Amino acid sequence: MRKMNTSYVSVARPSPPPVRRGRATACGVVTLLLICAAGCDLPDPFVPARPNAERGHTYYVSPDGDDENDGLSPARPWRTLAQADTIRFKPGDRLRLKGGARHRGTLTIGAGDAGSAKAPVVIESYGKGRATIAAPGTAGISVHNTAGIEVRGIVLVGDARSYARKDGIRFFSDLPRDRKLDHVVISAVDVSRFRHGVRIGGGRGATGFSNVTVKDAKLHGNKDAGLVTYGPDFEPDDPAYAHEKLKLVRIQAYENPGDPRAGTRNTGSGIVLGSVRGGLVDRSTSHHNGAQSSAVAQEGPEGIWTYDSTEMVIQRSVSYANRTGSRVDGGGFGLDNNVSSSVLQYNLSFDNDGAGYLIYSANGNGAHRDNTVRFNLSDNDSRKLPWYGGIVAYGARVKNLNLYHNTVVTKKNPRRVQQAPALRLEQGLRNVKIRNNIFVTDGAPLIDSEHAYKPTAVRFQGNDYFSTDTWKVKWGPGVYPTLREWRAAAVGQERLGAQPTGTDADPCLESAATPIRSVAGADTMVPGCGEALENAALDLRVLGVDLGSVDYFGERLAPTVAAGAAQPRSAE
User: Looking at the record's lineage, which domain of life comes first (predicted)?
Assistant: First the structure.
């Protein structure tokens, strides 16, 4: 432990701030008068630290201050972050940085600091505007083996060295015995020019953090990613998750370009969540990431994705114009390796290099299971990589996947010979149900399935398949030009018992002709024609599926629910 507690106890008044490093006493008590006669200045009178509402102390830092001050008021602030870094922060303490000012340095908080969820240590701005931490080749704020910390309303900016290898805000724990450190809040921050904007990690077993909230954050211009959580390698026989109860709300992750020299790993994602049990991403946006990721990497970036996690919900979020430097990934949303019991819902994806929604497993361990993709929109995705599609599901033993009430539109790319399908399936799928979706193309395959699946493995029911040009479904080795012919050849597909299901009716989507260019363009994916969609769709509630209560736009679902993510205008 490099931190020291040199505080003392006073009967008549609160103890002064504890510090990590004691200062050598210039004048001894016994020889004080003799030394002072030789020119020693008397010390300033002792001023007790003021308790705040959480029974802690409040410290101030300003470029106009002086490190010889007590730092206990805006009138007597410290000058540097280095001085603040000497304090051993106790539960309830606050560190306030002058708003509108630039503070060069870093803050490091360790195991002897903070630690209380009920009385957290708070790092925030005071005065007008937000304070800026300018990190000189270091992390902006680094927290190791402790929690009970809140970072609010701070701008963090790195330099070239920080961009190469440091994190803007870093929380890491490698404590023994699978301990979860409780309470982390990161709010209203702006983080740029680091390797990662925010990085939260666990170093062993299930050790990590719980009750983590990141909200109203802008994470941009960071090399590898905007926000990352991670833990140790996943063990399918004994899954352990480093973090739990994670909440990300109103995050903006954009223009995180990736590392062109990182050929052995993925870089350039907006939000990456690994090793989490119980996570929520809500009302967040990821765009224009990954443009400089490696051209030779075998794994690439995605806008918002999760891996090695369970009980995740990614909802009401937008991912667009994300790129990849290579021939893989570059999509909007993803449920990747070892994800279980998770949901993608009420999201919008458009104009990504790769898939709008990628469900993928490289591992045959059975850990990718029990996931749902519902009430999402995808428009004009897989622009660079047509071997993906609007929605893509493939990999080793992807099991118990439900895809329902999504709307997917893909369009021809005149610069590509191969065109992206609305839905692509590859081998390895088990017990996948694809129901009540709208698939629209302008001549590309509506479905491109590597394998002619039996309905016991993959089942289609109640979907709308519409093409503004040539109608086409690729099903294993066969290509079928009509719904009727595909239904006849793919035994059991688009049937409920002996009755045919599904339709090839025009849903009357404006987006079929005009690509979405902004979030407001989602309105063009509302069907203008509804009767055929209502007649074709199954009542999934009767089949035991909980649809929720609203569609993509928050409109309450009617007793008869039409296919697609949005209920038709004609049904209103």
Answer: Bacteria
The closest alpha carbon to 107, from 91, 92, 124, 126, belongs to 124
- Statement: the pTM of the whole predicted model exceeds 0.70: yes
- Residue 292 structure tokens: 């400089």
Counting the structural domains of the chain, the total is 1
Contact 171, 184 (CB under 8 A): yes
What pLDDT, on the 0 to 100 scale, is given for residue 415?
83
Structural domain contains residue 34: no
Strands 310-315 and 276-282, bridge-based pairing: parallel
What's the gap between Cα 24 and its chain centre? 47
Q: Is residue 204 part of a domain?
A: no
The residues, ordered by sequence, that sit 6+ positions from 323 with a Cβ below 8 Å of its Cβ are 268, 288, 289, 290, 291, 293, 301, 330, 352, 353, 384
CA angle 476, 481, 486 (to 5 degrees): 55
In a domain? residue 93: no
| Those residues with Cβ within 8 angstroms of residue 546's Cβ, 6 or more apart along the chain or in another chain | none
- Cα–Cα nearest to 116, from 93, 144, 97: 93
439: Cβ–Cβ under 8 A, 6 or more apart, which residues? 390, 408, 422, 423, 446, 447, 463, 464, 465, 466
Alpha-helical (H) ranges within 49-182 are: 81-84, 160-165
**Which residues does 387 contact at the CB level (< 8 Å), separation at least 6?**
418, 420, 424
Using alpha carbons only, how large is the chain's radius of gyration in Å?
28
- 249 near 213, Cβ under 8 Å? yes
pLDDT score at 570: 58
List, run by run, the mean pLDDT of 10-residue segments along the chain (572 residues): 30 41 37 36 39 74 98 98 97 98 98 94 98 98 98 99 98 97 99 99 96 99 99 95 99 99 97 99 99 96 99 99 97 98 99 98 94 99 96 93 98 87 96 98 97 97 98 98 98 95 97 94 95 92 95 95 91 42
Q: What is the pLDDT of residue 395?
A: 86
Q: Residues 321, 256: contact at Cβ < 8 Å?
A: no
Integer angstrom CA distances of residue 296 from 72, 293, 358: 54, 9, 20
* 234 DSSP assignment: P
Alpha-carbon gap, residue 457 to 466, rounded angstroms: 24
Q: Quick check: is 519 in a domain?
A: yes
The three state secondary structure string of 1-57 is CCCCCCCCCCCCCCCCCCECCCCCCCCCCCCHHHHHHCCCCCCCCCCCCCECCCCCE
